[in-house]
Amino acid sequence: MYTIRRIFKTQPGQAGAVAKLLHEQATIYHEAGHRSDFTVQYNGYTLPGEQNVVILQWTDDSIMSPSRPGNNIPKEAMAVGAEVRKLIESQRIEFLEMYPPA
Fold this sequence. Notes:
Layout lengths: L1 E9 L4 H17 L6 E6 L9 E8 L14 H11 L2 E10 L5
Antiparallel strand pairs: 1-3, 1-4, 2-3
Helix pairs in contact: 1-2
């Protein structure tokens, strides 16, 4: 079992907007059966620590390429992703193996 964490550095002041869009996109994926339950966290500017950051996290039994054959990505999720890209400066992904192993 793996935790998959996508971390977005947003343009200044856009963390709340990006969090809302990522929640919408992750809901689309979840309802289409592409993603397990998920969480979205963000820090706009009211908390200590790194600001303008949004984290989308979920778990999965395996790590699979989104461009694998037969993977039908919902068009609605792609449209939301295009909106997110306008509001971010960078992004990265982390894969963490859960302990104890299944």
